Structures are given as structure tokens and as C-alpha cells.
Amino acid sequence: xxxxxxxxxxxxxxxxxxxxxGIPLDVLEKGFDYYRREKVLSVQxxxxxxxxxxxxxxxxxxxxxxxxxxxxxxxxxxxxxxxKHMAAVFYAYYASVGxxxxxxxxxxxxxxxxxxxAAERPAADPSSLxxxxxxxxxxxxARHGETWRQCRHSLHPxxxxxxxxxxxxxxxxxxxxxxxxxxGIVFVLEQAERAxxxxxxxxxxxxxxxxxxxxxxxxxxxxELAAExxxxxxxxxxxxxxxxxxxxxHARDMDREQxxxxxxxxxxxxxxxxxxxxxxxxxxxxxxxxxxxRTKEERGLFFVPMALAFLAFADQRDDxxxxxxxxxxxxxxxxxxxxxxxQRLEERNWPKLxxxxxxxxxxxxxxxxxxxxxxxxxxxRLADRxxxxxxxxxxxxxxxxxxxxxxxxxxxxxxRQYEKWADLQLLFGIEPDxxxxxxxxxxxxxxxxxxxxxxxxxxxxxxxxxNRQGYRQAVKLMKRxxxxxxxxxxxxxxxxxxxxxxxxxxxxxxxxxxxWRGKIVT
Length: 522
Fold this sequence. Notes:
The longest helix is centred in the middle third of the chain and has 24 residues, at 174-197. The protein is mainly alpha-helical. Helix 8 packs antiparallel against helix 9, helix 9 runs parallel beside helix 11 (236-251) and helix 16 (330-347) packs parallel to helix 18 (373-386). Helices cover 64% and strands 4% of the residues. It has 26 helices and 4 strands. It has helices at 9-22, 25-36, 84-96, 101-110, 116-119, 126-129, 136-144, 156-168, 174-197, 204-227, 236-251, 263-274, 278-294, 303-314, 318-325, 330-347, 350-366, 373-386, 392-399, 405-414, 418-427, 437-446, 452-464, 468-487, 491-504, 509-517, and strands at residues 40-46, 50-56, 60-66, 74-75. The protein has a 4-stranded antiparallel beta sheet, covered by helices on one side. It is flat.
């Protein structure tokens, strides 16, 4: 659906009254059923007084609703006069402007007059809201609070809402406009949560993926806007707007299950800029401490301890931060712990980094499927590059084998620790043919001897297959190995190796034939 313009409130009320009096109840029921079954393909208001729509029935029908005189309304279906397609288009238009079609339908069935509050909302007046941050979210809720009901398969209706919210403040001063847009983004994200919460459990994974892709740009913009905040330069009105955002997060149930977004990241994106204001930080910590004391007996809560841990970390009280995170479920707060560890790594604060990595190691040992597992391995690699004399970083990587195989392989190759790399390949039974050809060539030039054991193991495995194909594979590997030996002028060692193979497997006539055929034995 698309809506380029909207009917004035007076016209909308008049059209509603005309439809209620001009379309029989049974036809309204059929029209509402068409709307609910998403038979309306598109709807839009044009020229300020007409609503155009396309409905899929037994064929595709075009509908025009005239708000000046409903008698001039038309539909291309065979029915003369008012029809269910007209009703369906009106319901769809009503939904597109953020109203509730269900409430509208109930009013029409019961013969009630249009509610003044439902359709008689004043047009956006940016100047009246610019200096009233405490009214922003209430105004958004009043105008667009039912839009989530249109988001059955897509969040596209919310994009129009966000565009309208931004347009209302586009002429404001930069600071208030930035904060108004941040309010708008958290509002539409909350609308998306409502839509997601009403999806059926069987399709929830699909909706989660589809909705998350749609909201990702909004979240990124929120974080960019938050990064531009300067607490020291905020005006009193801007500080009031920031307090409004904080109040939104405080009032919201941040701990609830089955959420579409990680709301705590939005909270921390804001606090990462506010943390330098000592007064604000002290007030927030006092509020969170009181909330923690009030809910300390409740289980499954993680947001308040995590928020307090963030404040403690910013205040260089890392031990307190880890103690607070330890009171929560590890998988809910592990990413924050990873962020803290990464910051200490960037600061090269090794004692505090070791403490954070120890905390993460303990949690990941129990819950390896946590999203912090990948960042943990990456930080181990970075720390080992910057502090190569500390064996604990590689120790962490090794301890998580086989799950850390890829990370450890890449790390040792980057560090040119080819012997350790080769030992790891031997441990996992990796054959030379399974390794990238270019990589084998590079190692063959830099440290050819580390490849010897890999070829020896692969050759023995091929011979143990006890078939002609395996013997041919063994000969192919031996020819590659011969080049490595001779490149290092190890001709005698190569001859001893071949003699050992011949004596050990002298009864395998097929192998002996392949050795002669491959000119390994002459």
C-alpha cells in the first residue's frame, strides 16, 4: 500500500458517515473480510478528496471513493451502487493513516457516530512540539500508535511513520531535531516489537529475520545520532529530551523474552556519550541501585545489573562490573563483557584484560554457543600479537579445540608459526590435498620441512586403503614430497624414505607396480 496524501479530518469523518449509512451491514461485513484477507492490493488518497484503491476479487477491480459526494464513488465490478470492494478500500485506507479498522468496523455495525478523538487529530504542528520534549512520544503514540496492526508481513507501514515523524521536525534546530529523530526511531522500533509479538509461533523465525533486516538501518541511524551527542553542549530543552529517552528505557520491560531487538544496545549507545557527565551518571546509578534492590529476589533479570556493570566499567571499577555481570545469565550479557574486554585491549591494560578474558573463558567453557565466542577468539589473537610473551592467549585458543580450529590455523599462519600450524593439521588428520594449493606453495618456500610429516601421514593413509586408487594417490603425494626433499638438498633422506616404503610394503605387488610406474623406484 502507498499513501501519498491524506484526507483532511473533516472529509474522513464525512466519508465514514456516508459509508456507514450508504452500505448495508452485510456488505460491510464482506468488505471487512476482504480487507482482513489482504485483498486490497493498493490504496492512496489523491487530489485531497478522493481515495483510490485496487482490490483483487474474482478479477482486479479499481475503486474510487469520493469524500465530497459518496454517490459519485465508483467500482469497476458488475455490482451497481455500493459494494464490498468500496468497503474494503475504505478499511484499508483507514489502516494506512494509523487508525484501527477493527474499531471502525465495530462502530459501523453498532451504528455509532465517528469518535472525535479517533479521526479528529490535529495536523502536525512542529512549532507546538519543538519546545515540549515531554510530549513527543505521547504525540507519536496518539497519531501512529496503531500502525503496527498493518505490519502483518512487512514493516513497510512503519517506514512511512518514521518519515512523517522526521518531516515534522526537519526545520527545528539541529540539537532538538537529532533528539526528536532518536525518539521517532525508538517509537517505530517499539511498534515493530508489537507487530513481532503478535506473530504466530510457527512463523516467528521467518518474521524475526524479515523484520530485523528492515529495522537494521533505523538502529544504525539511531547509533549514529547518539554518537553526535555532546553532553556539555546540551541546552536545557535538549537535556529534557535526553531524560525523556532515558525514561522510555526505564519504563520499558527490557528483560522480557522473545524480543526482536537487543534494546540494551540502544540504551548503551546513548550512555556511551552521557557517561562523561558525572552528575548524570551518579543519578542513573542511584536509580538503578534502587531498582536492583527492589527486584533482587526475581530471577531471569539481566538489564539492571548489566546497566550498573556498564557504569562501573566506565568508572574503572572492572571487578565490580564483573561481579554484577556474574549475577546474570552469561549468554544475555556476554557481548557487553566482550565490549569491555576489547576496550581494555585497545588501552593495552593487560591486568584488566586478563581479568575480563578469564571471565569470558569461564562462561564460554559452559556456554560455547554464546555470541561472544567469535569475539573472544578474535581478541585472543589480537592480544597474542601485541603480547607474544604471554602464553595464556594461545592457551585459550588451544583449549577450545576443535571449535577454535579455524581461528588457530589462521593465527599461526599469520604469525608464521609454521611448525605449530603443521602439528595442528596432523592432529586433525588434514591432508595436503585439502589445503589451499597457494598456501602449500608459500610454506614450501618458507619452511618446507614442516610439510614433511603432513605428506608422510597422508602417504601412509593412502597405502592403508589397500586398493589401486590409494596406491596411485600415494605415488602422487610422493612425487610432490620428492620435490620438497630435493629442494633442500636432502637426496639421501629421500632415498632412505623410499627404501623404507619399499621394504615395509614389499608384499603389496600392486603398490610396487605403481611405484615403478611413477618412477619413484627405478
